[in-house]
Write a structure and sequence with these properties.
Layout (H helix, E strand, L loop, with lengths): L4 E6 L6 E3 L5 E7 L6 E6 L2 H30 L8 H28 L7 H34 L1 H7 L2 H27 L16 H48 L1
Antiparallel strand pairs: 1-4, 2-3, 3-4
Helix pairs in contact: 1-2, 2-3, 3-4, 3-5, 3-6, 5-6
């Protein structure tokens, strides 16, 4: 089995090759973002290889399922409604993200981490990572907002909500996500990084952490908080509709 590199641990040794607690070898590839501590990558870790292959397998399986969903929409266009149009867009995003994880993220991060020291590869890695996360979170937010509209203003939703509005919302989400990603990655790359600095996730300063919190963490938290209330009100309305339906049937029979 060839030697592979992946998974990082931080150390304080100045040696290029050091021994870890479990007698594995770690390869020093450079300094961390602030240039204070060296960064090591575990070499020859069998659990890492197994986990990486499992992650790739799950990602490919997810991509296959999303491909099947897209095929169903393509074969039966009547399935596309103002609501399912959001689901269709989310399926496309999930399919893209799954393929990116299987073909780019895991192979680069766990097996060829040294190439992340190349600024072009590092920039692409950060750009795709932030953009995919942004699109997934905000598409879920659009779906959540769509359900609240259908619940709170059902007559307006039924008469005015169109499929093209869902497409316009998706395009707006993509445009905003691209702009925010360029801002985050561009701002981060405006700093002079130490030679060989590890290419980590975005948000390495207080300002960037604030941007990530506002654009990703806050919408994600809003979804988590609103979903239980949304499910409760939907269940309550359905229960009321069932009661009215039974009353109507009993009245007609009487």
């Amino acid at each position: 089995m060839g030697m592979y590199v992946g998974g990082f641990v931080e150390g304080i040794s100045n040696q290029s090759i050091v021994a870890t607690n479990n007698d594995s070898l770690a390869l020093k590839i450079g300094l961390d973002y602030e240039g204070r501590r060296p960064v090591y990558f575990i070499v020859g870790s069998t659990p890492l290889l197994v986990c990486s292959l499992l992650t790739i397998s799950v990602s490919l399986f997810g991509a296959t399922l999303n491909g099947c969903i897209l095929s169903a929409f393509r074969l039966n266009r009547s399935l596309i409604t103002p609501f399912t149009a959001h689901v269709l867009v989310l399926t496309i995003i999930n399919l893209t993200a799954a393929l990116a994880v299987a073909a780019f993220f895991i192979p680069v991060h766990n097996f060829h981490a040294g190439c992340l020291r190349v600024r072009a590869v590092c920039g692409l890695y950060r750009f795709v990572t932030f953009l995919m996360r942004y699109l997934i979170v905000h598409q879920h937010l659009l779906i959540c907002g769509d359900r609240w509209l259908a619940l709170l203003v059902p007559i307006w939703y039924s008469n005015h909500k169109r499929v093209r509005y869902s497409g316009m919302a998706a395009l707006l989400c993509l445009a905003l996500g691209t702009v925010w990603t360029v801002i985050v990655v561009g701002y981060e790359f405006s700093f002079a990084l130490p030679p060989g600095a590890y290419c980590g996730e975005p948000a390495r300063s207080s300002l960037l952490r604030l941007v990530v919190a506002v654009t990703i963490l806050f919408p994600q938290g809003l979804i988590y908080l609103s979903n239980p209330f949304l499910l409760y009100f939907v269940w309550k309305r359905r229960k009321c509709n069932d009661v009215q339906r039974r009353s109507t049937i009993m009245g007609e029979q009487g």
